[in-house]
What we know:
The protein has 95 residues and is mainly α. It has one domain (12-94). 59% of the residues lie in helices and 0% in strands. The protein has four helices and no strands. InterPro entries: UPF0175 (IPR005368). Pfam families: UPF0175.
Amino acid sequence: MEMTTVQLKVPVAMKPYIATKPDGELVQLALLLHPFVKNETISHGRAAEILGITKWQLIELYANEGFAYFDMDWSEVEEDVATYERLKAKEAAQV
């Protein structure tokens, strides 16, 4: 992946926590992209492409950092299942 340098102002007390090792750098870069993935400015796939990893590696990285790929609550899951069942029944009735 091609890299560039961007100057970023951070509090002085934050400096010791900025990654200097490649594995920590990937996590920090992924976390910088997370708000844009979450608000759907970019997809998980695009973020992974930017980082030079697979979508599944990014999903695993985010999961390890506590960000679930699916962020639906149980009522939303039930609603999706009900919609699926309703559409499937409608399709079966048309056959």
